[in-house]
User: Which sequence fits this backbone?
């Protein structure tokens, strides 16, 4: 009866190229997600270049036209419906 039991490891086929590609792609995706989460959690100190920029005058803001005039020109006033009596 002891000779009936087969304790040999099961035969597992070799993974195919697509299975390997999927496996390693999932590992890379998980690592990328961990890096993104850590980038959100861990604060990065600002460099000196970023601190120097706000002190300079911004010519783009001075030459920029207000957008409110452009928005109001593109929007047409709604016609009021006549009341039926």
Assistant:
């Amino acid at each position: 009866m002891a000779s009936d039991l087969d304790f040999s490891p099961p035969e597992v086929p070799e993974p195919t190229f697509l299975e390997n590609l999927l496996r390693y792609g999932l590992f890379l995706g998980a690592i990328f997600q961990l890096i993104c989460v850590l980038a959100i959690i861990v604060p990065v100190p600002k460099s000196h270049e970023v601190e120097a920029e706000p002190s300079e005058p911004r010519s783009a803001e001075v030459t920029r036209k207000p957008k409110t005039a452009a928005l109001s020109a593109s929007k047409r006033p709604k016609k009021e419906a006549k009341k039926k009596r």
